[in-house]
Amino acid sequence: ISDQKPLGCWSVKHGQILTCPVVCNFETHEYIAVHDDKVLRIWKNEDINLDKAFKATLSADVYRIHSLPHGGPVVLFRGGGVRTLDVLLEAPQQEIENVISGEVIRWSGAFMEGQQPVLIFTTEKDEDFFVYIQKPKLSSLHKYKLEQQESAKPLCFTAHITNQTVTLLCLYSNDSVYQVLIPLQQDTEEEEEEEILSKSLLLNLSVSGAVLKGTSLVVLDKDHVAVLGSLAVPGKEPRECLTIWNTKFQTLQTSKELPLGTSGQLWCYEEKFFLIHGKVLTVIMYKCETSSLAAAVGKLKDNQTPDVSSFVNWNTLEDEELVVSFQSQKSVALKAESRMNLRSRRSTVPEEQPKTLSVGQLLLNLKDASTYVLETELKKLMAKAPTPDLQATIGYVVTALTDRCKRNPKYYPRNFLQEIAETRDLSYSLCPDLMAVALEKKDMHLLQICLERFPDIPEEVTYVCLKTFLSMSEAHLQKIDVNLDSVICYIDVESDDKEFKTEIVENGFSAEMDQDMRDTKIPKENPSRSDGESCPVGLQKAALLNAVLHSAYTETFLLPHLKNLPARQAILFLRYLYYLYVKCSEKVNTTLPGIRSPTINQIMDWMCLLLDAQFTVMVMLPEAKELLSNLHKFVRAQVRFYSQLNKIEGSLRELQRLNHLRESQTYSIEVLEII
């Protein structure tokens, strides 16, 4: 998530439907999915084709799979039956009992109690709600009926287990949260009749006349819950927001408006919230602090600014907002921070000034400083930043610089930004505006550095850079300072500005070796033909294109953008890739000389990707016909050459073995017969 890069993508066949969320088996590092209700699939990260993954058809429909870090996956069937995955895989067609009759499962959760997994699920039938608690390894099952609530019904559930007691929290339609305590019973005989669970009011979701219509509820700790919903204020339009409540003191701890809307779902894992905000997955860090009356009362006094909190780092949602307090997993809003510093100044003598300003406060103070003062202070800040926070600090520094560039079009610290990008371990996610500003300012050198060093550049940005490089004229690029280390060792510029020539003499690609290669030889009087022996671009453009080849990408997300590349630019790029392909093939080790030169795999991957995206266009264009023909002949010559090498592979291995057995002091004449 931090690098904004998809790590894997798998698809079921057309007509098949994934019918429950996919989970990860923490013990085996495998993924587990169910499609079409009964078909179980298990695969690992390196598996590419889901259709070839392990498959097991079960005898009953699966409702949900829960994966526990130390308890393994647990499978809940729609009929209420529960099996651990290990037991299920021993006999996939084993009969699964129906625990429920005419009931529909509304929620389920899995927990560890000691060494035993415990699965809890709730069901509904004729407006009655039931709670089931199962220990699958002990074949233990207990059923309870939830006490009815007049004119209200449960909307969602969540639970946790503490000291052999299940705490079930229910969000009801009357804008209240109720608590149900269920002691974990020992494994005795089945109860003769189901027990009715009483509930107690835990929280009213209202503050200052506003009522929260909750849609999702999660537990943070014993004193705090988070509720996602729509805040209804009299006389105003409802606003979706994420709220955190103190259940001990019945107060709203903090809240954040979500103007782009949500899916109504909220997840919580390892002190991070996960929610869909607009069209993106948003991750928000939080840290639970010890619940105290002072904190709760203080929050009530300041309820006009409920987003002021040291509880949650809301900066994930603030694209343009400066980070005002640089603390691990904490963020204090600007208003509170400035008040605190003002109070501290008034209450202390001059000799006792605060030792250090927070990063956010320093950046705020430098917001309107002169260029010299700004850059000098930022250099000092990066030099003394503590090691654990260094990378994030540099990200804030770059963000401050790019913000000033956007506010003042005449300001652009070219050398300073290039120095930071070259000497610091940055990433796109730390300073997402940097490359946008570089594109706007036509800073090709900075874009080159970012493409070579950033591991998480979005495919759309990579495409924009590629299109920009290809569209720039050679005359303009010659005036630009870019790093030529990746091209200077294999592209030689002649004094009369003629195209570069090379003779293929290695790897079996001479004219005597294959007739196809003789067909691709181009007469000297026409050096501009795309034969792969002359570089179709200048040094500067070649260096920039090499930077694009180094950038990380996911084919699925880059391909749609490459389809929009103009035809002439696509042909020029393919000619350059073909040129690199031929140059690599000249060397026995298929490696280009130089620093950060593209590898044969990068060249081949981009060539295939470009042909996939532009093949129809290139087939239709007359100027691309000869290029595709030469490329086809060259690849065919390689295939033939390597097929001939494969024929003598056994003999070459035998020769290698004999060389190891030969004594260094013994003279001998050996005759090897190659069959």
Automatic annotation (TrEMBL):
Positions in coiled-coil regions: none
Subcellular localization(s) per the UniProt record: Nucleus, Nucleolus
GO cellular component: nucleolus
UniProt domain Nucleolar protein 11 C-terminal: residue ranges: 361-673
Segments forming domain Nucleolar protein 11 N-terminal: 1-287
Entry-linked InterPro entries: NOL11, Nol11_C, NOL11_N
Taxonomic superkingdom: Eukaryota
MF (Gene Ontology): RNA binding
Short name of any one Pfam family annotated for the protein: Nol11_C
GO biological process: maturation of SSU-rRNA
Keywords: Activator, Nucleus, rRNA processing, Transcription, Transcription regulation
Protein name: NOL11 protein
Organism from which the protein derives: Poecile atricapillus
Gene encoding the protein: Nol11
